[in-house]
Automatic annotation (TrEMBL), chains A, B:
GO terms for molecular function: DNA-binding transcription factor activity; transcription cis-regulatory region binding. It comes from the Bacteria. Pfam families: LacI, Peripla_BP_3. It comes from Marinactinospora thermotolerans DSM 45154. Keywords: DNA-binding, Transcription, Transcription regulation. SMART domains: HTH_LACI. This is Transcriptional regulator, LacI family.
Amino acid sequence: MVALPLMSGMPTIVDMPLPEHPRMSDVAARAGVSLSTVSRALRGASGVAPAVRAEVERAAAELGYVVSRGASSLVTGVTGRIAVLVPFLQPWFFGVALAGVSTRLRASGQDMLVYQVGDVDELDAYVRSLPLRSNVDAVIAVALDLGDTAVARLDEIGLPVVFCGRRVPGRACVFTDDTAAAAGATRHLLNLGHRRVAYVCSRDQTGFSWSSRDRLRGYEAAMAEAGAEAVVVTEPPGHQGGALAMARLLSMAEPPTAVFAESDDVAMGVLQVARRSGIDVPGDVSVMGFDDNDVAALLDLTTVAQPVTEMGERAAELAVRAVRAAGPVRDHVHLDTRLVVRQSTAVPRSRREGPAGGTEQRG
Amino acid sequence: MVALPLMSGMPTIVDMPLPEHPRMSDVAARAGVSLSTVSRALRGASGVAPAVRAEVERAAAELGYVVSRGASSLVTGVTGRIAVLVPFLQPWFFGVALAGVSTRLRASGQDMLVYQVGDVDELDAYVRSLPLRSNVDAVIAVALDLGDTAVARLDEIGLPVVFCGRRVPGRACVFTDDTAAAAGATRHLLNLGHRRVAYVCSRDQTGFSWSSRDRLRGYEAAMAEAGAEAVVVTEPPGHQGGALAMARLLSMAEPPTAVFAESDDVAMGVLQVARRSGIDVPGDVSVMGFDDNDVAALLDLTTVAQPVTEMGERAAELAVRAVRAAGPVRDHVHLDTRLVVRQSTAVPRSRREGPAGGTEQRG
DNA sequence: CTGTTAGCGCGTTCAA
DNA sequence: TTGAACGCGCTAACAG
């Protein structure tokens, strides 16, 4: 700050009352420069003398000034906000994915707007009303099937969309290969010596989810490949569905020796019924899940791990890139899954009691 | 629409190309009125002829026009956005709370901005930088201890704060009585006939959380009231901590016959170690949790249920009210907890094998 | 390198 | 009941 000769009693610039909601002009006055210089300095734009920039930053800090995004986005058209659409907020998967998105966005100073669009109507209402220019810069759809019309509408508006958790041809997306992962998991059970491997999948009113369908396909392929007969049980989602499914499986003439559940959540229901029925896992039946959520480790469930946090981060990364590029980004980010072998899968009893059989394993 | 005589080949209003990003003036032109009339009509302000209003709404719908929040908030100072601060995104509690907030905000057309502020620095950075005027209308802190300086800063800016999950004197907040709930849970165990009831609590680097402290207090009070000796084990949070704690308890000269864990998550670790050690629950030891998360039901864990969704909804309600009132709201919303008795707690073996003892129970 | 000017899209005075 | 003018706080062109 420049030292000035002052008459005593005269209010100095330091004595001036701090405005409650300082604006850029307050900073400009305090730093003794013009508005545009403040704007440039605070934005980190080039063409500002280092000394001036420092002075401006000091003035801003002293006033507790922060640029109003609303005002600047009115001019630039960039809001600094990214919308994340999720079908649910409660399940483990979405919390983890959001954490990933949040981390990445923080790094570039973007804000995260979260919308829960449980049903098609909500999605529709969202797409219809919200994403008008000057509300968000991009949309990340997590484990969500935006319809064609919704996507078309976003395109029309010029809003980049990133799909997280699903492969969408011609679109920016981050995904894992559910089919291959499910096939790998099924092979793990087959390689242990199981032949009667059942698959539990879930469907709600809306029908199968795509990841559900993809996993089923992988299971069927692996079974066919091994010449084993596929046994598929369909119930509502969640562990309730898993419990119902396991009950049905246990009432079959020849119950399976291994159960592959579409998700860890469903597997929990399977395990619960097994435990209550006095059926030993993996002694009597092997159980395999999918997701590797936090409870899976707790219950020693063999499962397929997805890098969910990373999926969120990468999706956010694509969204940020699309905003910067001011145009659509079409990258496909394919992340790997990982088979996590724990205590819930083992060689079937028939094998153990017969001639000693090795426990092979393939990816 | 008014039918007009047209020369053929002359472009009609219907033929006019739809602007990609229609603005209010486009609507005004299409409806044949002025800008201010459109503004009034679309905002539902009074003083617009019904016929004119209908015409404006039609024009807006045909153009796919939506008011730009950015522009209007520049004038009104209201953003239509509410910030939700959470320490974590992954745990069950936060997903459920966010779902509650989301539901309530949707009803009033507000958007939800989510910030993960895991450590004090992040919180500080957030409070320092973001909530300047024209970014959000209110802040909801979920299970978070904003420091005094942070709160003071928000006050200064005039941003309403709502605390969710904690009682804060003189502030708008939604909470449950952790102390009373923990005391009730402890009494449940005492009433079953347990005397050696251990409490497992968690602390991380930061120290005890307040809910942790409150619950501990309730446990201690109930034990003292019954003339029983308190046994408290402290470990890191999460089920790992629970597992460590249970291991320590099992190595005591006289292990407890009942374990009350600070949270369901911690209780999971306790159950895991019990199961692996061949200790029957509740045969050998009763286990009680706190939260009633989705896994608790699955594992038949007796626990204390909190109305988490409702907490989120009510917090959002207070935030919306504060925005409407354009001033601070100081309501305290006290919600009840509920003891959920499942299969993990029972009369201790000593009682069962001795003279028949009844299973009493108090709230 | 810096200052001046003209809007960004809308709500809100006023006057009609 | 409607319309015209002004300004919300800021950035982007220019000119200096």
